[in-house]
Write a structure and sequence with these properties.
about 200 residues; 5-stranded antiparallel β-sheet; 8 helices; about 40% helix
Amino acid sequence: MSHRLPDESLDRLFRTARTHNALGGEVSDDTLRALYDLLKWAPTSANASPGRFVFVKSAEAKKRLEPALDEGNRDKTMAAPVTVIVGHDLDFAEKLPYLFPHADAKSWFAGASDEALATFGLRNGSLQGAYLMFAARALGLDCGPMSGFNNAKVDAEFFAGTRIRSNFLINLGYGKPEELFPRSPRLPFDEAAQIL
């Protein structure tokens, strides 16, 4: 991996990509499978891959999600072709014999508290949610990530009987540029970073 991506690709992933509040179009199941098949290759600690994703697409599934949405996110989420519930599994260690076979990584988490498991799961599941957005952009989709919802309601409705916990939501579809807000600024290098 020694070559630089062309500017067109960097623009699509970063520079001109926007957070969309208005999304339309159709997103096929094949596209969602292709999206996951890209994001799954990105790194997580010990390859643990604790991220879990529910692609809420049908009208029935959207109705199940609706009561958990904050008022400001309700209409745009109900109108989006797909909403992804990005979660993380506190039982991620059960998959480690398969995902990290060259060491007994499962034993590293034996006896760990739920708080420690949640910290690890949230950190790495958040990474996987970010990878999902970049995979979506790479496939020509637009994204609208958000955290304005009731996690407990989502967990009860979509993850009952499991140890999966919701983190954030991402609306997916094809953005409507005419409804974008003006681009907000970003911090310059010297205010956010340093080289030592």
